[in-house]
Write a structure and sequence with these properties.
Chain lengths: 113, 114
């Protein structure tokens, strides 16, 4: 019940295209859902996060869509650029707990120039 | 300002040896987390400190793993009798209070047990 399932495992997108990464969770008590971006040899860096009281959050080219009833959330990267090529992790957390993150398995994104 | 720093960046050791991994959180951050990231996987939670105390150590895989944060700032993850399966990247993260604020990750320590 603590798992977060992420798909696809890898994704190739043309420059200017839309990248879509999906995550699903089981524990309905989760109440914080961040997305992290990780470049090779670096630690993960927060990209955008959402709480379940909203269905969508947009920051620049990055949008999170959240479907509470389906227990799913997704990251959309608009106008994808070669510099977006990285591994993306979704995560879930309990804000009333110890706030530890449960991460998905990651999506390796490659944006072709 | 300075981010989370971790030392060493790489550590190679032999099976059965003892290792210490150090984390310097962002100044003023009271919450500190350790995660372990195996190749091709997402980070897995190990332990959470609020101040000096370990508030949640449920992710430590066994009693060979131990972590301390004696003064509420720097933390050390200690692994005894290392095994080849301990090879991974050990990530440290900190947040301002731990109450749902952003966790800022360090670059990690890459541990290889031969």
């Amino acid at each position: 019940q603590q798992q977060v399932k992420q798909s696809p495992q890898s994704l190739i997108v043309q420059k200017g295209g839309i990248s879509i990464i999906n995550c699903a969770y089981e524990n309905t008590a989760f109440d914080y859902f961040p997305w992290y971006q990780q470049f090779p040899g670096k630690g993960p860096a927060l990209l955008i996060a959402i709480r379940p009281d909203v269905s969508e959050k947009k920051e620049g080219r990055f949008t999170i869509s959240f479907n509470k009833s389906a227990k799913q959330f997704s990251l959309h990267i608009m106008d994808s650029q070669p510099g977006d090529s990285a591994t993306y992790f979704c995560a879930a957390s309990l804000l009333s707990g110890t706030y530890k993150y449960i991460f998905g398995t990651g999506t390796r994104l490659k944006v072709l120039a | 300002g300075a981010g989370v720093s971790q030392t060493p960046s790489n550590k190679v050791t032999e099976k059965g040896k003892y290792v210490e991994l150090r984390c310097d959180p962002i100044s003023g951050h009271t919450a500190l987390y350790w995660y372990r990231q195996s190749l091709g996987q997402g980070p897995e939670f190990l332990i959470y400190f609020q101040g000096t105390g370990a508030a949640d150590d449920s992710g430590l895989p066994n009693d060979r793993f131990f972590a301390v944060r004696p003064e509420g700032s720097v933390s050390t993850l200690k692994i005894q009798r290392t095994e080849r399966g301990d090879s991974a990247v050990y990530l440290c993260a900190s947040s301002l209070k731990g109450g749902g604020e952003t966790q800022y990750f360090g670059p990690g320590t890459r541990l290889l047990v031969l």
